[in-house]
Amino acid sequence: MGSEKLSLDRNLALELVRVTESAAIAASRWMGRGDKNGADGAAVDAMRSALSTIAMDGIVVIGEGEKDEAPMLFNGERIGDGSEPKVDIAVDPIEGTTPTALGRENALSVIALSERGTMFNPGPCFYMNKIAAGPESRGKISLDLTPTENVREVAKAKAIPIREVTVVILDRPRNQEIIEEVRKAGARVHLITDGDVAAAISTAWPTSGADLLLGIGGTPEGVVSAAALKSMGGEIQGRLWPRDDAESKAIIAAGLEIDKTLTHNDLIQSENCFFAATGVTNGELLRGVRYTPTGAVTQSLVMRSKSGTVRLIESTHRLSKFSEYLSE
Predict the structure, then answer these.
(1) Rounded CA gap, 305 and 228, in Å?
(2) Which of 264, 251, 272 is nearest to 125 (CA)?
(3) C-alpha dist (Å) from residue 145 to 58, 102, 172, 262, 267
(4) Could you tell me which residues come within 8 angstroms of residue 2 by beta carbon, excluding any fewer than 6 positions away?
(5) Residues 6 or more apart from 44 whose CB is under 8 A from it?
(6) What are residue 169's phi and psi, to 5 degrees?
(7) Which residues in the chain come in under a pLDDT of 70?
(8) Which residues contact 175 (CB under 8 A, 6 or more apart)?
(9) CB atoms within 10 A of CB 293
(10) Cα 142 to Cα 136: distance, rounded to the nearest angstrom
């Protein structure tokens, strides 16, 4: 295990950025063209190609779906050249296919990686009730508290009035009660149409203006967010949220507990995990891919939980080197 950890530290931290950069550049060529499947396909192809060059023995725990439904980056697929270290991988070639297709904000290409056997597998559960916040509010927030109580705890932890607390919530009918309660509590509400991962990270990003994430969103996105928030010193909690009785039975059959509160340490059990994200379109967290006469410019975040290092990286790419990814 000692040599595996050394390899994980030394070889993979910054290589993940190359993976998300490739996917973001490929996806960005489809921005605003109204074809989310085309954008997703381009990003998947680019990400898979880049992942295949990395020295690791990876298993996709969270991917594009089951093998029969997603020919690329499916759950359980082996990724890398087969050498050490052994790792679990969560990928989302485009977090925000619809925003990409429509030319809207906050689309990212993201990937998370941790030591083998340490990444939570959501199985048949697509959604979870989530709460996330940055370092100041860590240990203060809880899914056992009401939205009003959580807003008050965040205000107290950050030493700001409740009226200055900004709560990010996914704009869905299932979250309407939470939205109304937060408004009654006197906090600011920032509704988002997509971008679960970016929203969770924003609560720990100093210049984002977000203080708290509440509401029911994607379970896979919760796992990916956990890798980032562990690196940033923030916190995320989640409870599985089955949509119907059939999904409840499937969750129980998979050995998962519906009522259990999952912390970031349950979602990513390793203290040696990595996260990378590259902007596809402009957003509050990252700028999207920008083109120049000879290339493209990307902005990315790369994080490592063991060291608590968070890097903001801006890279210039010669598009001739990326020609194999830029399918039309």
Answers:
(1) 8
(2) 251
(3) 38, 37, 21, 15, 20
(4) none
(5) 23, 64, 72, 73, 93
(6) -140, 135
(7) 1-11, 65-72, 321-328
(8) 169, 214, 215, 216
(9) 5
(10) 14
pLDDT at residue 173, rounded to an integer: 97
**Closest Cα partner for 120 from 62, 80, 199, 200?**
62
Omega cis (within 30) before 206: no
Asked whether the beta carbons of 109 and 94 are under 8 A apart, the reply is yes
Q: Interhelix angle for 36-51 vs 15-28, to 10°?
A: 150
Q: What is the pLDDT of residues 290-314, one digit of tens each?
A: 999 989 999 999 999 998 999 999 9
Label residue 82 left, alpha or beta by phi (over 0 means left) and psi (-120 to 50 means alpha).
left
Q: At 46, which amino acid appears?
A: A
pLDDT in tens, 37-56: 999 999 999 999 999 889 89
Q: What is the rounded CA–CA span in Å between residue 300 and residue 138?
A: 25
Q: Pick from 63, 131, 119, 132: which is nearest to 265 by CA?
A: 119
pTM as predicted: 0.91
The answer for residues whose C-beta is within 8 angstroms of residue 244's C-beta and 6 or more apart is none
Q: What is the rounded CA–CA span in Å between residue 34 and residue 76?
A: 30
Q: Inter-axis angle of helices 176-185 and 147-158, to 10 degrees? A: 50
Backbone φ and ψ of 100, nearest 5°: -65, -50
